[in-house]
Amino acid sequence: MARLPDAQLAHFGFHVRDLDAMIAFYQKALGLVVTDMGDYYMGGKIVFMSRDPAEHHQIVLASGRVDDGSMKLINQISFKVACLEDLQAYYEWLVPLNVNEMNPRNHGNAWSIYFRDPEGNRIEIYTPSPWYVSQPFGDPLDLTQSAEAVRQITETRVKADPSAVPVEEWAANLKARIAQEGPAA
Predict the structure, then answer these.
(1) For residue 31, what are the domain limits?
(2) How far apart are CA 103 and CA 140, in angstroms?
(3) Nearest alpha-carbon partner for 87 in 150, 38, 27, 37
(4) Where are the alpha helices (DSSP H) in the chain?
(5) What pLDDT is recorded for position 1?
(6) Domain with 123 in it: what CATH number?
(7) Residues of the chain with confidence (pLDDT) below 50
(8) Which residue among 4, 15, 68, 72 is least crowded, i.e. fewest CB within 10 A of its CB?
(9) What angle do CA 101, 48, 19 make, to 5 degrees?
(10) CA distance 20 to 63
């Protein structure tokens, strides 16, 4: 590969001590709204927040932070690529680098690769899918399959979930919620 696809910083995830206080802060201070929440596969609860109807989340808050040094403050640093094929190119690039804890995931609303930097910070490279499904949602993802096969598997899995809607419908609903719930200027 001559050049890696463009990947732009998109969102951060934080481990937090007081989930309710952090939700309230980001709602009041920045006008973010909760887009999804649920049980986190790493333990505790996870909350997704956004103020942009084109982005499912701009901030991720994961409960369970302790101050004994056993947990990093940063849950994840996420970079967005333009399409599934670009994500697959990153996967092909990362495999021979033997990055730590590489974990491709199908979130239904996005496809992701998670891995650790040399100091243990979790990095995510992702691209959105054309569907919305309630989060958290995560299946293993085989990025060696064709992009069309990944799309078909995802569509079948997402459409079996009662929360599934086209991403455009979800974004229109989020835009209305932001206008209703966001702080007045």
Answers:
(1) 8-103+116-128+167-181
(2) 8
(3) 150
(4) 19-30, 84-94, 147-159, 167-181
(5) 57
(6) 3.10.180.10
(7) none
(8) 68
(9) 95
(10) 9
